[in-house]
Amino acid sequence: MNKMKMPTGGLHLTVDRRSFLRATSILAAGGAITLRSGLPVHAQENSAELLKLYADAKVDWQKNKGQTIVLGGLEHPWMNAVVPLIPLFTQLTGIEVKVDKQSETEFSASMPVKLGGGSATPDVFMIWALGQAISAKWLQPLDAFRNDASLFDAAWYDEPDIFSSARSFEKWSDGASYGLAITAEAQTLFMNKSMLDAKGLSAPASMDDLLKLAVALKSEEVAGIAMRAKPTGDAAPWTLAGFVFSYGGAYVTKDGKSGLAMPESIAGLDMYGKLLREAGPVGIASYHWMECLNDFMQGAVAIGCDSSNFATDIEDKSKSTVAGNTLFGVLPASEGKPAKPNMWHWMAGINAKSANKDAAWLFLMWATSKPTSTLAAAVGLATPRGSAWQTSAFRDRFGAQAADAALKNLQAADGDLFKAAWFHPKAPEILDAVGIAVNEVVTGSKDATKAFGDADGKVRQALEM
Amino acid sequence: MDARTRFIILMLTPATVLLLGLTIFPFIASVAMSLSNYSMVTPDSLAFAGLQNYFKLLQAEEFWTALRATALFTVLAVAIQLALGVAIATFLHHETRAVPLLRAIYLLPMAITPVAAVFTFRMMLNPSLGVFNYLLKLVGLPPQDWLGTPAMAMTSLLIVDTWQWAPFILLIAAGGLAAMDEEPLQAARMDGATEAQVFFHHTLPALLPYLGVAIVFRAIDAFKTFDIIFVLTGGGPGVATRTLNLLAYKHGIEFLSMGYAAAIAIVMLAITIIAAQVFLRRMRMFVPRAAL
Known about the structure:
The complex is a heterodimer of chains A (about 475) and B (about 290). Chain A starts with 16 loop residues before the first helix and ends with a helix. Chain A has 24 helices and 12 strands. The longest helix of chain A has 17 residues, at about 265-280. Chain A has about 475 residues and is α/β, with parallel strands linked by helices. Chain A has helices at about 15-30, 40-45, 45-55, 75-80, 85-95, 105-115, 130-135, 145, 155, 165-170, 195-200, 205-215, 235-245, 265-280, 290-295, 310-315, 355-370, 370-375, 385-390, 390-400, 400-410, 415-420, 425-445, 450-465, and strands at about 35, 40, 70-75, 95-100, 125, 180, 185-190, 225, 300-305, 325-330, 345, 345-350. A 5-stranded mixed β-sheet of chain A has the order 4-3-5-12-6. In chain A, strands 7, 8, 9, 10 and 11 form a 5-stranded mixed β-sheet that branches. With about 290 residues, chain B is mostly helical. Chain B has helices spanning about 5-35, 50-60, 60-95, 100-110, 115-125, 130-140, 150-180, 185-190, 195-225, 225-230, 245-255, 260-285. In chain B, helix 1 packs across helix 12 (about 260-285), helix 3 (about 60-95) packs across helix 11 and helix 9 packs antiparallel against helix 12 (about 260-285). The longest helix of chain B has about 35 residues, at about 60-95. The two termini of chain B are about 40 Å apart. The interface between A and B is large, with 39 and 32 residues.
């Protein structure tokens, strides 16, 4: 049993512990899960056993039998892990689920058009911009479902098992909840172990150490470090945030003002720019997360610093040349300040125009429940449930060392700083300005003071509108 | 109403309905939206804003930066593709056995789904793992940051756009060459004109009406290029390749400021119409040849 302190109070099993453990052991014992007819082999063979876990909930699962809902999502580990389990949900509830999966770009471009046009589908969808979606009234508040005894069993659902950061994500400033967290990610450092060993170097303890390490590892063949620098709102701002926050800065301060002109924010951007200019690969200015991950997995770069979810790909021998040769670590601190890596919980919510809201809620609750989270974790999904992170199936698939590093980074993260920027109704404008600033600093066309000064003007203008 | 008139109206109705539904109505809706403060983030505060979006746009530095990037991309793309398309069409015009195969190969890029092709180029342009830099290394040249500097990013975009759309010019120029009367060319050759003289003094002037059409089509298309830029550079580095179409996308789809985005689209339309009209008048393309 992992003794590490969890972001919430650890494993809380208020459902029948024996049956729960029995079901999860079915998965753990099976090792790698293969898929057949949409449902994991072990789940198919033991679906009756698994269904008992849901039957323990004092919820009328069959209330909306015969209805059909549409699940909207993007190409993402959560969809890849949960969609194959949907037959289990249909067996439990009699509700059919149609899946509408798109690429990330396609999804975030088509959803505003669809929802803005008043479409009743998808009934349940992954929320790509919470502040926008709430302001535009696309999301159904979830509190009424939670208060309906036929639709929610608090004891069975076991909210304390969900990381506190994830529960805080679910609460909007008006006190209502508009979505449920479906993943847990934290900014994590990953280093090529053999490259470190070859030069007798170790993981960095400070930001300055990180710079020295990255420069020392850079050679003709291998870049020292790769991080996102593409000038778009969905690219560079997420990884830069860990640096800005760790230096004491903010994109948007907790009182809702632009924090880009703060000396601490500028210092964070300056370090980020230095790292990529002095130790980054050729062409880093156009790198999104995919290029960073590919370069690291192919051994073309020695250090990466991105989502903890990368561990699943990095440790996958079929696509990574550095599987089993990667050291996962915490984001280093700047001098005299605590490290504050960035974080992220994907959330899913219900379309306010959905004609099948109760069925949609049942799906959402099922998908985020402890049994489903455990099943999804067995194929490597980092769910926001502490119990799922502790299962051996998850730790084997995700990597125990990667899981420990991710949890440490998640504990160190400051969710309020993240929420102030990413949950703001003007988040796309704010992040677009930050993305351009990062790119300008990395390409050397502006220094950090000028780049963030210009971005500050744009953000102030957006916040005033 | 006589039977003939009724028949004409009946025949015109489907096309008119389609025109109204798919072109006129969306256009009117866009103009109306551009005169409002409509934002999907605050749908309840919808109000008439007059020309406010247009004034704001014309005062915004990002608009002029985007206009410069758009103009540069359009002019260079059309010029390069025109030169290349005409050159290849002329080369293919001389009948050889290989021509049908070569023509098919040259036209292939136009038949490929643009986004799929651009994603392939994105991988090929990847500085550390892409084939372009691999080939450079093979011949002893240093790897290039294909999308990392404003000049290189624009050059890369032009390479991809030219790969895809030069065949369009080729197709029209080849059509023009096939329809051309060969007798004056043969007469010129018999009078001792060199091939270059024949081309520049006879072939090219005779091709001009065809090329004029190709230029208008291609320029309008290049002006509103989106997929190549979106996938390859996202408008970067900085905002060096953020064209007007990308700016409209940012404001409309990402920021959900539909009124402002509609104003950008209407300004783009106005620029296209004015530029096309000026070009067509200069080329005197719609003036009957007898009046020239």
